[in-house]
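tokens incoming
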């Protein structure tokens, strides 16, 4: 589980979704900054942040009470800059999303107001990629939707898409993160895919900064060009001295592209989003 970046507003008008036999689950903008998804939990519709950098799905203390869970144990996680977070957990929480039901083996219990600020509109937690483990999904933020792919819809989806390096990162607690391989002169740097990073910059660790031609001693934004397989991204980057990962990349990459994630086989594909072209 990582930090929840509350960053700049993005994305305006959406386009109609193309016909597909995969199931499209709608997303909504949250305060013009992040996305939310609706799920039925404890018999009622609830609103959750959708954040690929979340790692392990989170529910609020009040929702834990509603599902009849007395939070217990301890799950330790570290945010992007190394800050330690210790939380209690609930097990076997069921989420009804679209036509499907997902059961999280464990979720963390935490008040998002501690991160987002008490002035933020309340949500019931945050859904991470762990809830979709072993499935294939496409994230299409231009159309504000997640597509739960079938074998047939996936075959059509991948026409014109480009495969990019992916590494699945899991933990004993069941957390699931996706790291994308970014080419450097020394090998691949593994940058966390984080849709919560909606700002103008990717984040890079000081150890990786020189490999991208970045000055590691400044936190000012710097121009950078990176490559994920054959996909080129010209963007801006900020170097954070305390990062505990190679880097973090979010809307800078997927604002104008769809990304398809096979969370079982550990594969990923990028394609231009026709809604923005």
């Amino acid at each position: 589980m990582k930090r929840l970046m509350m960053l700049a507003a993005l994305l305006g008008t959406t386009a109609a979704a193309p016909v597909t036999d995969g199931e499209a689950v709608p997303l909504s903008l949250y305060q013009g900054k992040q996305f939310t998804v609706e799920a039925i939990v404890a018999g009622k519709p609830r609103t959750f942040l959708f954040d690929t950098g979340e790692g392990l799905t989170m529910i609020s203390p009040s929702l834990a009470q509603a599902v009849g869970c007395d939070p217990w144990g301890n799950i330790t996680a570290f945010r992007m800059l190394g800050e330690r977070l210790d939380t209690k957990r609930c097990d076997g929480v069921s989420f009804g999303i679209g036509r499907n039901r997902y059961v999280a083996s464990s979720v963390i219990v935490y008040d998002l107001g501690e991160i987002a600020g008490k002035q933020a509109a309340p949500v019931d937690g945050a859904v991470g990629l762990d809830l979709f483990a072993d499935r294939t999904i496409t994230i299409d933020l231009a159309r504000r939707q997640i597509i739960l792919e079938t074998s047939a819809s996936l075959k059509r989806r991948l026409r014109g898409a480009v495969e990019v390096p992916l590494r699945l990162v899991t933990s004993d607690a069941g957390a699931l993160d996706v790291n994308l391989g970014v080419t450097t002169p020394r090998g691949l740097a593994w940058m966390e895919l984080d849709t919560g990073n909606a700002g103008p910059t990717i984040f890079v660790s000081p150890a990786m900064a020189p490999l991208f031609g970045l000055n590691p001693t400044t936190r000012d934004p710097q121009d950078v060009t990176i490559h994920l397989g054959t996909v080129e991204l010209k963007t801006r980057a900020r170097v954070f001295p305390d990062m505990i990962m190679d880097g973090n990349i979010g809307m800078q990459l997927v604002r104008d592209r769809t990304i398809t994630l096979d969370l079982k086989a550990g594969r990923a594909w990028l394609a231009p989003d026709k809604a923005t072209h």
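note: Confidence is low (pLDDT under 50) at residues 1-19.
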